[in-house]
Amino acid sequence: VTVETPIKSRYRVKVKVDGSDVQLTRSGRNGQNLVLAPPRSLEVSNSSKVQATLRAGHTVAGVSLRKEEIVIEIDIKDAVEQFLLSMKAEVSISDQATFRQRPVTITVFFRSPPTSELVRSTLQNLREVMGEFRRITGGSTQKQKGTVIRYCIAFSELDPRSKAAFNVLAVTLELLKQQQGRDQMVSTLTRHLERVLPFAKEALKEVVEDEADILRRAIGRLYTLTMDVAEFSCDYVTRKRFKRLAKAMTPGQDQERINDLSRGFTEVVEEFDRAVNVEMLKAVRSREERVLLDRLKPIQTGYRLDRGCMEGTRVGLLDEIVQWAMRPPTGGTISGASTSHNVYWLYGIPGIGKTAIAHSICAQLHKKGRLGGTFFCRRDDPDLSDPKSVIPTLVFNLAETWGPYRKLLANKLRKDPKLTRHSADNQLFALLLDTLQSHPPHPLLLIIDALDECGDSLGRSSIITSLIAAASRVSWLRIIVTSRQDSDIESSFGRFDGRYLSRDLASDDQAHNDIYFYAQSKLSTIAQRRGLAKDWPGDKKLEEIVQRSGRLFIFVETLLRLLERGLNPDRYLAQALSVGSGSALERLHSLYTTAIRSQIDEDKEEFRSAMGTIIVVGQYRPLSVEAVAQLSNLPVHVVSTLVNKLGSLLYKDSTTSGGIRVRHLSVIDFLTWSNTPEDLAVDTEKAHRDVGVACLKVMTLGLRFNICGIESSFLANRDIVDLQSRVDENMSNALQYSCLHWSDHLSHVQETNNGEMMAALDKFTKFPRLLYWMEALSVMGKVGVGDSMLRRIPAWLKCLDRSVEKRIRDALKFILTFQEAIKTSAPHTYISGLVLVPTETDLWKDSSRLFRNLLVVEKGRKTSWRARSSTLRGHVGNVWSVACSPNGRRIISGSEDRTIRIWDAEIGAGVGEPLEGHSDWIRSVAYSPDGRRIVSGSDDRTICIWDAETGVAVGEPLKGHNAGISSVAYSHDGRRIISGSGDKTIRIWDAQSGAPVGEPLEGHTDRIRSVAYSPTEHRIISGSDDRTIRIWDAETGVAVGKPLEGHTDWISGVAYSPDGRRIISGSGDWTIRIWNAETGAAVGKPLEGHGDWVRSVACSPNGRHITSVSYDRTIRIWDAETGAAVGDPLEGHTGWIRSVAYSPDGRHIISSSDDSTIRIWDAESGAAVGESLEEHTHCIHSIASSSDGRRIISGSEDGIIRIWDTETGDTVGYPLEGHAGGVLSVAYSPDDRRIISGSEDRTIRIWDAGTGAAVGEPLEGHNGDILTVTYSPDGRRIISGSEDRTIRIWEAETGVAVGEPLEGHTHWITSIIYSPDGRRIISGSADKTIRIWDAQTGAGIGEPLEGHTHWILSVAYSPDGRHIISSSRDRTIHIWDAQTGAAVGEPLEGHTDWINSVVYSPDDRYIVSGSDDRTIRIWDAQTGAPVGGPLEGHTAGVLTLAYSPNAFHIISGSNDGTIRIWDPAQCKYLSF
Questions:
Q1: Model confidence pLDDT, tens digit, residues 643-671
Q2: Among residues 129, 249, 123, 228, which one has the least CA distance to residue 177?
Q3: Is 673 exposed, middle or buried (0-12, 13-18, 19+ CB in 10 A)?
Q4: Each residue of 1215-1232: pLDDT tens digit?
Q5: Maximal CA-CA distance, the chain
Q6: Which of 241, 390, 1124, 1462 could be a cystine partner for 1450, CB 3.0 to 4.6 Å?
Q7: What are the residues facing 981 on neighbouring strands?
């Protein structure tokens, strides 16, 4: 507003707009004109009224002097409309009047606000995007299937309509923001719109591959709301700016519409919240499914377009196979079982093009959406040649392809955490397909290429069995297998005659034309590139090339590569075509000879060395030129030149960082073939030796302390972000390879007395290089392979120098003992490992000299490595059979508990999980001669074969017997399995296929208990309950000679002497007999000495001794020549001994027994191997179990607390020592982190359960022996009861006494316990009463419970807190109502002496009591009736009891100084 007037006196200006005062401030003068402006923009309409008042004069003492004013009405309608229509930067309107006889002009200026132009452009933009949205939504019929919702993307990615919708929303929001500055009515709507846009951007945070049905409904609602808001906003803004031009709505109507739209936004957001929660759940489930499927550890192996057939070749063959793969099911629905051939075997000789065909088939079917999975095997790749990887990878691929199968598979893995990739061939493949409810609408293909390059014959047979089983389950699954026509593959397919198709690629009629076309095309390219004649080399030579190829594409491909690289193509072609005749393979080998000789000339030695290295390292991983040179002891430029010259045979694989590979495995076949020319032949054993020695030298020179420069031992390996780059920077390719495979190469060498090899091994094993090697394994994340590498050396090198062997065994003990520390942190190889190495070992003596700043162990340091436990514990039933692996590293056992266990023979610990699969007792187990398989026979009438490494069942169980299997054995060549059964027959099985061989051997008239093969494999012997031994021809199954008779009772065990000249038998007549294997005549007199059945016999590997085991619980050793007993019987088992075996080196005897244990004995001395369990030397007063059942603690009169492993029976750590008197009571804290003990020394001690260290000072306060201690359920309090007749409560964290002692009993407090809810304490006393106390206040609750007539020795709460039980010297157990204190039922009677301990089972079903009558009794907690008979075994009173948390086992401690674990179901003890 400006005021123009010549008046010089002071005046004031006041402006009103629509009757309201407008505050104006002076903003300056324009000449003589006064310029006034409001502090903020004012909103006016074309109907607004502006009134300006000028006022002059002043007041003195309340009297006005010369006061004067004038009011000017300004009509602004025309000016405002002009401004709004023109959108000019400024318009004005003026009015004139007279004030104090002078003219006055007042001008009102209308200027565009800063947002005006933005409002205008935004409005225009909104109209445009609304039009676009209408166009898309009006004409679109697109369905929202396969919607992909990604993290941090707008909903606009859902489909094209969404993008338009959100453009509308975004522009509408900008429009409303501008309008909000002038109109508070739209602020609510603006806030809702502002909330929706970020929500739309951020709400969906996971990838979901599914139909977003729920989201689609919410999005549809948002579409509608989007247009409603946009149209209202356009209309509203237009009306507010052009009230005269637009149809007006009342403010109330606008507000109601805004409220409706705001409610709509609230509902949409809520609907999106619900939808997103569902979709998020799906996203989490999808992520979880991926994690579960990753347990299969699939191998990345896919087809490559550049590896397929050349366009225009193999057309007919490919069309035929693709049509077969895509054909609809015959004779059934897509979801039904297959009624036709769903497996196709394509076979042919090497180089015929099998792999190219496989790649082409994959490409075509992938393009059509029909490819379910692939696996391309390669003999020179450890992952791609591992049979255990094939089925898991295919299962994973199939799950990725078909969603319902993925969900089913993930659910199976989720429910059973024990399922791994090794379960894929059975449980996760064929059997799972049976339960699939939703099936693909068309067939899916799985393809396995080059099966002959994968594993051994048994592994391949297992793969074929799994594939055919799966293909027969559903009709939509097609499977193609390509391979050479190897006999084992042909035999495996032959077992499924009629269930597969096969085709010999050599019979392909089009192969000649295809090779001609291929050769012609490639030769034309070579001619053009080399500047040769256009028709080079001419039709005649072209035809000759095709003829000589013998239909092998690899022949032509190799020749073409040779011609491409040679200086004179004509000369190379002439040489190649001049080779002799023969089979296609022989001509191929001749071509290889030409290709090599034409390039290497006189460099044959370097060629053989480099090629030997390339071939043998290729079994593990291909190496770069530099690494091959280092391991071949050749200059890098020599290897590089060699690889370049032999480009027709070799190439650098970019996927393995330039690792050198052969182009075709037929090259390796040729170089290692017995008929290969001598100057080119590669001796693989020599190559392994040379590479093994080179690895030792590389490590000796390259390894060093802290090789990766790790700055701190405080960080775990996993927390060092750049650890892998440090490894690559500091460890060459050759060094990394050497650390992982030196042992692999040396173990291939048969000639073990090589001087260079022994010298290199001696140098490498000298301190401290083995430690540096372990550190290197740690930083590479490969510590797990260390122990197997070390074990391999002594097993392979029989003539190993004793000092080297000692170093290796020390290193093995070290890595086994400190494996977790080394895995976790490389520096802790030294910091944690070396500190605890036994002081009398050479390793420690050397370490202490080199590493002088190691921590010092003040107490408890061992002087020598802990020896192997002589007793292996883990089975929960009679152990019927044991066997030792051929390399002596593993022991297997079969038990009544229906499991097979594998044990580490070196340390006596269990290896992996028990093998489960049999449904009844396992009577017999055996290793295959190569140690790769385990066979077991069971009372369930089946024989199972297991992978010895993984523990996974191989193939289906062998069935045929009509009664339980008593004995199984492998033939010495591993090709056959024999079994003897209660059905009186012997069966022979093919070990590869599992098929029966011939008819059952019949002749025995009663149960067959034992069978064995002769060392020559020509004979089988069997022992039977009919008291005879029979000899059979292993080939024909015909009985040889007459039965061997002489025993007067069942024959329970038979064995051959190592030279096959003698047969040994053991019998229920308590004797062992020796027989002449040739004549069947008895040799000498029966061996007598056992006092019961002789259950099993074995002959030592050197044939000098016979060992027998008996139900008299002893093992006897006999001189095989004289029959005289050698030494005293071996004693230690507490149950019948069922089985005996020798270790392969003859140094140890292994036995199994009904006491559920396996024992290892020194065959020379007869002593149990290893140190015995460190047992208490006095009676055990108290025991307790950890909450997870893995540990037991015991307190003894010897003042010591011991921690025990319930699985092995071994002590854990060192004894807990500190009490000055007997330990009368022990307990675990609820979280298992602390142990408390009460003692005769009147103190309570707290111990760290992990380290065994004392925590704080002893708790003192009692004036008598502390008889009982326990924790509160929340672990915050400790209570103790004493001979001083008081109960004390202690703060568990600080050890401070809480309140005053609880007093009331008139004699010793013998037992106390908290109620399950922690609100009550009950105490039992020698005053014959039980008292209940308030745990918070310490006040007594109710009257004492009375009923016992002698001391109360033990009290316990039921798990549900409803009952209290007590046991007494009066030989009874009382049950009380915990609420009322009333006795429940009659006392439980049966024990004949004091009842020292009583407990409830965790499931509330049983009460268990232990007594001075040396028995344990089990009672029904509901009825009070005894359950079964007393548990007997202790030789003195049972003082303390505990139940395992899973309610499976009862633990007892006795005055006889032992702890026993009992299986209440079988009423017998298991261990300790």
A1: 988 888 999 988 888 999 998 888 999 99
A2: 123
A3: middle
A4: 888 898 889 999 999 988
A5: 160
A6: 1462
A7: 965
